[in-house]
Structures are given as structure tokens and as C-alpha cells.
């Protein structure tokens, strides 16, 4: 509200910094809760048919204000109709939220984060592609462990649980999760889940 009511550039800059700090703290607490929920729900899933395109659109829409605060564009690429799969919606939502959150958190201003939804013959795939910091020379296993983070992100607030959550969701749903450096910088995080 204060940010919307002021026109002074210095005050707006200070308010943006404060909002980012609060957002970072809330995000870390949210990841701790997400991880606990994933561990619990992995054994007690509630499955239903999920429209992956609609879910991805909801996630992109919910993160649009956060991305805008960081001057990052969010894009969604999904076929119409999008793939539908039988899944625990809360687990899947948690995984996608963490992928988008990481991409925004580690991307520079004026970057674009793209969420891509695709369907193969047996798997639905969600890719979150960015031009952020990448893996800092580390291998995939190094950044997917609990409370482990890349050496190139020490200056960014984080719990080291985001990729662990995605990996655990993929395992619980019989899918796979990979993250790879992109040529030119950034990463492509790919969550692949069975359609049956």
C-alpha cells in the first residue's frame, strides 16, 4: 500500500528493498512447511485428475507480482489442450511453486523465466527455464540434497530445500527431476511425470 501511495523514487526504492526482504523470509519459512507437507503426503496421497496447463497458469499468475518486483518477466508455454494426469495436486503444486520460485530468485533483473508444459506419449513434462546463475559448476546431485545450495548463491536468502522438494515429489509420483546448465547461462529444470 505504501509503495502504491508514494511517488518519490528514493522512498520507492527503500520500500521495494523492504518488501523483498520480507518476501525472502516468508519464502524460506514456506519451504520448510512445504518440505514437511511433501514428506507427509508422499505416503498418503490424495489423487485426482489435474490439468497441468491450468495448474501451471495458476502458479505463473500467483508469482507474477513477485517477478514484477524483481523486474523479471514470466512466460507460460502450454499446449491447448494441456496434458492431464492423475496426481496429488498439492504435491504437484508444491513442486511447481519451488521451481518457479528458484528461477525468479536466482535470475537477474530484466530476465525472462519460462514455464513450458509438454505432453509425450507416456509422460507430461514441465520445464522451468531461466538465465540465472546456473549451478555454479556443481553437479545436479550437489544442489538437490537437503539444505544444500550452490556455492554461487551465498548472497541470496534460501533454505536449500526447494530442489529437494521437487526431487521428493517426482519420486513420490513415479517421475523424474533433472536440472541442467544452459549454454549461455541459467538452468533448465525438468519435471517429468507419468500420464497414467
Please explain how this structure is put together:
- This protein starts with a helix and ends with a strand.
- It has helices at 2-5, 9-43, 52-69, 89-105, 140-144, 162-172; strands spanning 47-51, 73-77, 84-88, 112-119, 123-129, 176-181, 187-194.
- α2 (9-43) runs antiparallel to α4 and α4 (89-105) packs antiparallel against α6 (162-172).
- The strands form two sheets. Strands 2-4-5-7-6 form a five-stranded mixed β-sheet. A two-stranded antiparallel sheet has the order 1-3.
- With 196 residues, it is α+β, with helices and mostly antiparallel strands.
Please render the helix and strand layout as text.
Elements: H1 2-5, H2 9-43, E1 47-51, H3 52-69, E2 73-77, E3 84-88, H4 89-105, E4 112-119, E5 123-129, H5 140-144, H6 162-172, E6 176-181, E7 187-194
Parallel strand pairs: 2-4
Antiparallel strand pairs: 1-3, 4-5, 5-7, 6-7
Helix pairs in contact: 2-4, 2-6, 3-4, 4-6
Amino acid at each position: 500500500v505504501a509503495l502504491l501511495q508514494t511517488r518519490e523514487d528514493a522512498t520507492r526504492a527503500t520500500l521495494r528493498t523492504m518488501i523483498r526482504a520480507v518476501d525472502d523470509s516468508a519464502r524460506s519459512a514456506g519451504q520448510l512447511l512445504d518440505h514437511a507437507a511433501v514428506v507427509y503426503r508422499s505416503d498418503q496421497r490424495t489423487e485426482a485428475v489435474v490439468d497441468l496447463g491450468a495448474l501451471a497458469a495458476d502458479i505463473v499468475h500467483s508469482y507474477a507480482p513477485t517477478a514484477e518486483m524483481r523486474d523479471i518477466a514470466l512466460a507460460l508455454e502450454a499446449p491447448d489442450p494441456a496434458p492431464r494426469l492423475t496426481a496429488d495436486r498439492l504435491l504437484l503444486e508444491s513442486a511447481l511453486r519451488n521451481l518457479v520460485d528458484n528461477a525468479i530468485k536466482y535470475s537477474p533483473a530484466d530476465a525472462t523465466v519460462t514455464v513450458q508444459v509438454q505432453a509425450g506419449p507416456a509422460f507430461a513434462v514441465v520445464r522451468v527455464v531461466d538465465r540465472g546463475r546456473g549451478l555454479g559448476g556443481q553437479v545436479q546431485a550437489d544442489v538437490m540434497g537437503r539444505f544444500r545450495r550452490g556455492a554461487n548463491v551465498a548472497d541470496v536468502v534460501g533454505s536449500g530445500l526447494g530442489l529437494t522438494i521437487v526431487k521428493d515429489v517426482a519420486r513420490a509420483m513415479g517421475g523424474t527431476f533433472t536440472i541442467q546448465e544452459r549454454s549461455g547461462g541459467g538452468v533448465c529444470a525438468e519435471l517429468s511425470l507419468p500420464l497414467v
